[in-house]
Design brief:
By secondary structure, the protein is mostly helical. The protein is built from 13 helices and 2 strands. The relative contact order is 0.21. It is a multi-pass membrane protein. This is ABC transporter permease.
Length: 307
């Protein structure tokens, strides 16, 4: 986003705009992973789900002319990978981490294979909500363009928080995640609850992929996810398995991602690659801090500590 017309005042504006644009994929994937981990399972394969969702959304939008149908199909593609993941991790003596790595390779492989014909064509993109028409400054108008998918993510976070605390199915998921044995004693089907949680979480991750290819950056390439699916796992740990805190953490990661482009827009090109690496550095720092053996993770589902 250009900031020449307002100079250095445009840097914080560009960071805010970049935070809004860049946080949505983190938000959808982290909410999906939060839902999955609340049931006592880990899905590292959401990186592959993000890629497959991005490819499916772009291909569907190009072939049908409807970006919203592309969003829906991205969620369906995510559910497909989630179903496979759920079926595999329910088998005896199967490790979640190993299955997740396999699903990254599988999901990204499918996306790359079927996505080759859609790298060059231009597909219809999702519309933006224009909140800056009151201003004559182009950078302000661009900063206040918000995707409806971002607003949907903002709504899902408190809804999921309420779901876990105030609904019967939310109680089932928490019970299964905290103590599968106790859940079985209550007559809850552990496998059924976990399967539905994984599939629903993968659906949300697929929506994150649709955001990438149909809004920001708004194209399909094989490197479009940039590891955001894997970073979301660290984000969920940082957020203490709380959907509201997942929202805050996603905004933090999105803001870190926006620093480099914002400074570059006013001519600061030194250490550009270091600023671009800030989300990855932040992920590494979070993992170091939260994985200390001297610290107890507050809010962690009990079943995760036994894997």
């Amino acid at each position: 986003m250009a900031t020449e017309t307002i100079g250095w005042w445009g840097v914080p504006l560009a960071i805010i705009a970049g935070t809004i644009r860049g946080s949505a994929p983190f938000l959808f994937v982290s909410l999906g992973e939060c839902l999955t981990e609340k049931s006592g399972r880990i899905n590292l394969g959401l990186e592959g789900t993000l890629l497959l969702g991005a490819m499916t959304a772009y291909a569907t939008s190009y072939l049908t002319g409807s970006p919203w149908l592309g969003v829906l199909m991205a969620g369906v593609a995510g559910m497909f990978l989630g179903l496979i993941h759920a079926l595999l991790v329910q088998q005896p003596k199967v490790n979640d981490i190993a299955v997740g790595i396999a699903m990254i390779i599988f999901g990204s492989g499918i996306a790359f294979f079927f996505g080759k014909p859609f790298i060059q064509p231009v597909a219809p993109r999702l519309p933006a909500i224009e909140l800056g028409n009151w201003s004559d400054i182009p950078s302000v108008k661009a900063a206040l363009q918000i995707s409806p998918l971002f607003i949907l993510g903002l709504a899902i976070a408190p809804l999921m928080h309420w779901f876990f605390r105030s609904t019967r199915w939310g109680l089932f998921i928490r019970a299964v995640g905290d103590s599968p044995e106790a859940a079985k004693a209550m007559g809850i089907s552990v496998n059924k609850v976990r399967m539905l949680a994984i599939i629903a979480g993968s659906f949300l991750a697929g929506l994150g992929g649709a955001y990438l290819s149909l809004y920001y950056p708004g194209s399909w390439t094989e490197r479009i996810s940039s590891g955001q699916g894997l970073m979301a796992v660290a984000l969920v740990i940082f957020a203490r398995w709380n959907p509201i805190q997942c929202l805050y953490a996603a905004l933090l990661f999105g803001g870190a991602q926006a620093i480099g482009p914002a400074l570059q827009s006013v001519g600061v090109t030194g250490y550009y690659y270091l600023f671009n690496a800030s989300p990855y550095i932040l992920t590494l720092l979070i993992m170091i801090i939260t994985c200390s053996p001297k610290r107890t993770l507050r809010g962690v589902p009990g079943a995760l500590t036994t894997q």
